[in-house]
Write a structure and sequence with these properties.
single chain, 79 residues, 2 strands
C-alpha cells in the first residue's frame, strides 16, 4: 500500500490503525536515516517475530522515494 500526502495528514496514523486492525506489529522505518544494514535488520526481526508468535509485521517506510539503488535492491525481495 502506498500512502501519499503532505506532512501531518495522517499517513502514519492510518498505517498504525491498519497494523492494529490486522493484529500485526507496527515498525516505522525511515528511508532517510537508514541504510542497507537497517533494512536487513528490520526484515530479520520481522521474520523472527513471525516465527515466535505467528503474527506479521507492517513496516511503514517513511520517505521511501529517498531510497538509493542499493537500498532498493536490499528492500525489494521483502516487498
Amino acid at each position: 500500500m502506498v500512502l501519499w500526502g503532505p506532512p501531518g495528514t495522517g499517513k502514519t496514523t492510518l498505517a498504525r490503525i491498519v497494523a492494529r486492525a490486522t493484529a500485526n506489529r507496527f515498525v516505522p522505518f525511515s528511508a532517510v536515516t537508514s541504510g542497507i544494514k537497517e533494512v536487513k535488520q528490520v526484515m530479520a526481526d520481522a521474520e523472527r517475530f513471525k516465527q515466535a508468535d505467528g503474527r506479521g509485521t507492517l513496516v511503514f517506510v517513511d520517505e521511501i522515494h529517498r531510497f538509493n539503488k542499493a537500498q532498493q535492491d536490499a528492500f525489494l525481495p521483502y516487498v
